[in-house]
Design a protein that fits this description.
Layout (H helix, E strand, L loop, with lengths): L22 H4 L1 E9 L2 E12 L5 E11 L2 E13 L5 E2 L3 E5 L4 E8 L2 E3 L2 E3 L2 E2 L4 E2 L1 E6 L3 E14 L34 H4 L6 E4 L11 E5 L1 E3 L2 E3 L2 E3 L2 E4 L10 E5 L16 E9 L12 E8 L4 E3 L10 E9 L7 E7 L1 E2 L8 E7 L16 E10 L3 E7 L2 E4 L4 E7 L7 E6 L4 E7 L4 E7 L3 H4 L3 E9 L15 E2 L6 E5 L2 E6 L2 E3 L8
Parallel strand pairs: 31-35
Antiparallel strand pairs: 1-13, 2-3, 3-4, 4-5, 6-7, 7-12, 8-9, 10-11, 12-13, 14-15, 15-28, 16-17, 18-27, 19-20, 20-23, 21-25, 21-28, 22-24, 22-27, 24-26, 29-30, 29-32, 33-34, 34-35, 36-37, 37-38, 38-39
């Protein structure tokens, strides 16, 4: 039979002279071309996840096909990486879920093919990873595959400077703006309102920072002007406070420095607020401050929208009008995003904080101001599993573990998961050695945070099907197709296929 080779390549060859590489540097998604037996397989994505220790990685190749057979997710935990980015992996077992077979995987270095050398080395931008897959029951010779890709390093999954920390340039913190940098016909009239958005040393309980932002209203000609800050830009174009044709906050792709590029689909936005209305009356329905944040495509957007139809631009929105606490203290607010049916790609996010839900609302007394302290604004990406599903039966996790009666992977095609999270991806990895299932849960912001969640499915009955050599008695055993035999030689269980020998992990030894 023709020898089949498979090589998994995710990146850049690195020289010994390059700077030391940490696992944090290289974790993320890699996109590129996959080759099988040196023929094009097509475009694929692979993931490098943080491993159990500081010098280890977990490799994920989702939904791998071999011929007409679905092999499922190839998940390899505990890949070791040295300071030069060189990868190594002790021989490990892998479950091929659709054909119910255990394979042995070995990571290769210096693999030669047609005068080319392929290494297992990774960097922050590219990598090479060369794997050999052996399965004595169906593959008399090892398989080797080639994936050549580049790292996806989009880090636009968070709001800038959510704690309003650092130096305030021109009386504005990095990433946020107010009246001092307003645009519009009346910009010069409002640019002196810099005291409506100032730095404060009052921080929310438990904060690791030292600063927050303080918004205050201002009375102009007897009409309240709301305190207002945004990661876009304020347009001051009308003397009428609620005139959305002239007064709004906006994000425009051409407006460099006043927009926030964004790639994610978060589940919620969380922030801390200390709202103090001028009349100190939390039950007054007029006294409600406001947050509004909108995820958009690569197009202009404004808040409020006025009479313009932005349905082709909006992807998701989180809005809350909130009252003060009874003691005018800090409160943590979590606001879920609601997503439209728009299938566009996220490109920008526009966020606005205001001292009142209504433009020109709030106190009208010249000596009394509405105030809102804002701190630690954060976008949250859920990456949780609610249930592990077997034939429609829901099984709940407790402390990240599901314990089940039955046999490990007797029919892996029936396994599924129910996840919580708008952007979450789940990968099931089968651990044939420990006879458990590991479920990896990754959300959009993994590229930025490197954070994911791992769940474990354990089986009370560890007995596996007859194809598992570890479950065989030490004697000559032939399978139903007489394609291989198992024999005890010098105290070792050997699997023989003709003149080819394998050990009990499926690695060829002769």
């Amino acid at each position: 039979m023709k020898k089949i080779f498979t090589v998994l390549v995710a990146g850049l060859m690195m020289s010994a002279q390059m700077m030391a590489v940490s696992t944090k540097d290289v974790c993320g998604q890699f996109d590129g071309e996959l080759w099988l037996d040196w023929d094009s397989y097509g475009s694929k994505s692979v993931y490098l996840l943080p491993g159990a220790t500081s010098n280890t990685l977990t490799f994920v190749l989702p939904d791998f096909m071999f011929g007409a057979g679905k092999l499922g997710n190839i998940v390899l935990p505990n890949i070791t990486m040295d300071e030069n980015g060189t990868l190594s992996l002790e021989e490990t077992s892998l479950y091929l879920d659709s054909i119910k077979l255990r394979a042995s995987i070995t990571m290769l270095n210096n693999y030669e093919y047609e005068s080319n050398t392929y290494n297992s080395v990774v960097s922050a931008t590219k990598a090479q990873v060369t794997l050999q897959i052996s399965e004595p029951n169906t593959l008399p010779m090892p398989i080797i595959v080639v994936f050549d890709g580049k790292a996806v390093r989009d880090n636009n999954y968070a709001l800038p400077n959510g704690g309003f920390e650092g130096a305030w340039t021109n009386k504005e913190p990095q990433g946020w703006h107010s009246f001092g940098t307003a645009a519009g016909d009346f910009a010069n009239f409002v640019k002196g309102n810099t005291m409506q958005f100032v730095q404060s040393n009052q921080v929310r309980p438990g904060s690791e920072g030292t600063q927050s932002a303080l918004l205050s209203s201002k009375v102009v000609f007897g009409i309240p002007a709301n305190g207002n800050c945004t990661n876009g830009q304020i347009n001051a174009g009308s003397m009428t406070a609620d005139d959305a044709r002239g007064n709004y906050n906006f994000s425009d792709p051409t407006n460099a420095g006043f927009n926030t590029p964004f790639n994610g689909r978060p589940d919620s936005i969380v922030f801390w607020a200390k709202y103090v209305p001028a009349d100190k009356n939390p039950s007054n329905e007029v006294n409600k401050a406001r947050l509004n944040t909108v995820i958009t495509t690569d197009a202009r957007y404004q808040d409020p929208e006025g009479e313009t139809d932005y349905s082709a631009v909006k992807l998701g929105q989180a809005t809350i009008n909130y009252a003060a606490t009874s003691n005018m203290g800090w409160q943590r607010l979590s606001v879920p995003f609601e997503y439209t049916d728009n299938a566009g790609k996220p490109a920008y996010i526009l966020t606005t904080f205001s001292t009142n839900q209504t433009p020109g609302g709030g106190s009208s007394a010249s000596q009394k101001l509405d105030s809102v302290y804002i701190d630690d604004v954060e976008l949250v990406y859920n990456k949780n599993l609610r249930y592990f599903v077997i034939d429609g039966q829901l099984n709940a996790f407790y402390n990240g573990i599901v314990s089940l009666e039955g046999t490990y992977c007797d029919d892996c095609a029936k396994y599924n998961t129910v996840a919580i999270g708008k952007s979450v991806q789940t990968f099931i990895g089968f651990d044939a050695i420990h006879k458990c299932i590991q479920v990896y849960v990754i959300a959009d912001d993994f590229a930025q945070t490197g954070d994911y969640r791992l769940y474990r499915v354990e089986f009370e009955d560890s007995v596996t099907d007859d194809l598992d050599p570890l479950n065989q008695s030490i004697q000559n055993v032939n399978d139903t197709n007489n394609r291989f035999e198992k024999v005890l030689i010098d105290g070792q269980l050997i699997i023989r296929c003709g003149e080819v020998w394998y050990n009990i992990n499926g690695a060829r030894i002769r």
